[in-house]
Amino acid sequence: MKFASLGSGSEGNALLISTASSIGRTTVMLDCGFNIKETERRLQRLGLVPADLAGIVVTHEHQDHVGGVFRFARRHAIPVWLSYGTYQAVRKDCDGVAYHFCRDGQSVTIGELNLIPYTVPHDAREPVQYVIQDSRFRLGVLTDAGQATPYLTKTLSGCDALVLECNHDRQMLANSTYPPSLRNRIGGAYGHLSNDATAEILGAVDRSRLKIVVGAHLSQQNNTPELARAALCSIVDGEAAQVMIACQDEGFGWISLEE
Fold it and tell me: How far apart (Å, rounded) are the C-alpha atoms in residues 234 and 219?
């Protein structure tokens, strides 16, 4: 298995997961918050064309995650998976797209990849995040959640790699120029994870297989890569896991998981 990001942050998100077997290669895209031209450009940077994608899987209806999904899927005849609640929020955009429903705990098989949706606390209709597996490896993804839950922590345990939201530094958010309503929304139970909250989640999961953890969805106003990295390193320092940080403009290049 390998994975890469087209970009990660409030201006657009898209994560690629790919695996190969004797049957062939399967590549899916998790969310797409970029327009068609920009998505194609970012795919090309990673050596892909739209025809390489077996599907697009959606977490929730916020525009930085779903804004480009349906135009891109329609243009290139790519099937889409999303929760029914998310569909209710975006149904006007679904015409001409082959879409399929998914729900918490019920695995979805796309080619050689198995995706398990799990519910998270976020201010959307029916938000889910995903654990993605092939025959050997397990990748856990968590962005856009306001707080930890026992279910979330259990689901992310035992992964070989984790992509975890490090949206904001609490002090930077408190001192930001954002209006109080927005600060409360971001820092609330259905908003976004702070560096400290994500570190607590990382500290609570089973890390016995963990090889790499990527901090993602950083706020450009209320966080820094250095603060996010320090929070994650405070948990895994001395362990085998490598720490990386995703960025808005470049995301990150292909990361391969090996035995």
Answer: 20
The DSSP secondary-structure symbol of 209 reads: T
Token pair of 161, please?
């790699």
Give the CA angle between residues 123, 54, 86 to the nearest 5°.
Answer: 20
Look at residue 88 in the predicted model and tell me its pLDDT: 98
Phi and psi at 30, nearest 5°, equal -100, 110
Which residues make beta-bridge pairs with 214?
A: 163, 244
Contact present, 141 and 128 (Cβ < 8 Å)? no
And the tokens for 27? 């590549």
Q: Distance between CA 166 and CA 144 in Å, rounded? A: 9
Using the predicted structure, report yes or no on whether residue 2 has a pLDDT greater than 90: yes
Q: Give me the number of domains the chain comprises.
A: 1
Domain around 176? 2-256
Does position 105 have pLDDT exceeding 80, yes or no?
yes
CA atoms within 13 A on the CB side of 8: 27
**Taking Cα atoms as reference points, which of 228, 213, 239 lies closest to residue 161?**
213
How far apart CA 197 and CA 235 sit, in angstroms, is 12
Number of residues that make up the chain:
259
**Chain centroid to CA 90: how far?**
19
> Which of 146, 189, 143, 134 lies closest to 162 in space, CA to CA?
143
pTM of the model: 0.97
Q: What is the pLDDT of residues 192-223, one digit of tens each?
A: 999 999 999 999 999 999 999 999 999 999 99
DSSP state, residue 93:
G
Q: What is the CATH number of the domain that holds 194?
A: 3.60.15.10
